[in-house]
Amino acid sequence: PLQRLKDVLLSGTSLEECKDAARFDISKDNSTVSITVVGASGDLAKKKIFPALFALYYEDCLPEHFTIFGYARSKMTDAELRNMVSQTLTCRIDKRENCTEKMELFLKRCFYHSGQYDSLDNFAELDKKLKEHEDGRVSNRIFYLSIPPNIFVDAVKCASLSASSANGWTRVIVEKPFGRDSESSAALTKDLKQYLEEDQIFRIDHYLGKELVENLSVLRFSNLIFEPLWSRQYIRSVQLIFSEDFGTEGRGGYFDHYGIIRDIMQNHLLQILALFAMETPVSLDAEDIRNEKVKVLRSMRPLKLEDTVPQGSLTPTFAAAALFIDNARWEGVPFLMKAGKALHDKRTEIRVQFRHVPGNLYKRNFGPDLDDATNELVIRVQPDEAIYLTINNKVPGLGMKLDRSNLNLLYAARYSKEIPDAYERLLLDAIEGERRLFIRSDELDAAWALFTPLLKELEEKNIIPEYYPYGSRSPVGVHYLAARHNVKWG
Length: 490
Ligand code: NDP
Ligand code: BG6
Known about the structure:
Residues 37-215 form the Glucose-6-phosphate dehydrogenase NAD-binding domain. By secondary structure, the protein is an alpha/beta fold.
């Protein structure tokens, strides 16, 4: 049954369908899954983890025997945890039946244990409670580290020594940031590996769980028309754009220490880039995909100060950079990244700009700037998920007027079902042991190797930021960067 489940998951099945596979597999065996949210009193646990667990439960994707424990230092009873958690659970818009009833049933499976993150004794108490709920079954355990990174290792040590499963598997989901640079990331990996094997560590990058990021490989490898164009021969530039229309609200302390390059570029945008640019993997197996991603990362040039924008004015809340992959497929193609907070809109997009049509017969219909006539493929990750291709088209009529139009796949119009949150997919994958969407340690090393020299230089030289007004489009310097590479931002 496990192989059957894996086949279903790897065949690109929807969450809805996977639910049947999961139910088929897990309800029949004598195992139980205990999920401990370490740092359950915090923001991420409330905002994302408990709602995602509820959504999985609601879709019947959790195994029959499961228990959820919140663990943190705050004093709370089970009832108080349930009350806190219940504030953020939501029902699927497209499936509201029995929702309140399901919520109550879900909350009954949630418990709380208060303890210190560095106390072997407190984790041993948790272990005792987990065993009571596991009731003699084979116990599989997940610890979700939803805590600040400086206490990751303490918590892993205690969870591993005092509360790991005696007869099943134990997995630990780790949230970013995974260090601040190559050295601290390597030290974190080394410390975690004192207590865990690499295959027990699930490093989460929630952008990999977003629907359109998952769809990237499907788009590329299952449509004949894209793959032949996917190279320097036809693609002039690729843009990875992240913007948020709010600032660092509520997370200022963390952000001040990390900044936008570490918060968004080195992980979320770089992961998308690696998936976008990788060679065809041997199979959809996690290791095959991660092998290809790591090759891309290792073929990239580490960033220099002059590749970023604006030179001498990089701000902690906004950054743009041009990255290059020095391999046969991508040599010379700029991958422009732009990430910023407190801008005029919230969106994440991949924009693929194609080259000019050589000897374009309709050149004179386009005016002086042929850039206005290039095709562009846009994958809008969020909001309003969409994939569209900008083409040139004749305006109907007797004259010969050309127009730019979109061939448009708007998800909301095409699919009626609500798109699952990234955390749902990733939690389900962690439960099933599917590692495809998690970051392997060599990927992490390669990702840090690209950004660490730049980050050090920025800090050593104490670069002065270029200011931009809250709610604006970006600092002006981004346009100079694009112009230097002879492209325009989409
Ligand atoms: P919080 O700052 O809310 O911390 C979570 C819990 O950890 C707190 O409720 C607190 O619980 C405990 N805690 C906080 N600070 C300390 C400290 N200095 N020493 C010991 N315990 C502490 O974090 P978030 O929930 O926002 O994030 C959790 C993890 O997820 C972090 O690694 C973060 O970087 C990452 N992350 C968060 C995102 C978000 O949107 N919030 C997005 C992506 C990643 P108590 O006092 O009860 O023990
Ligand atoms: C997190 C960053 O990883 O991603 C936050 O730490 C950012 O700064 C968030 O706001 C964005 O995630 P999403 O899914 O809301 O786009």
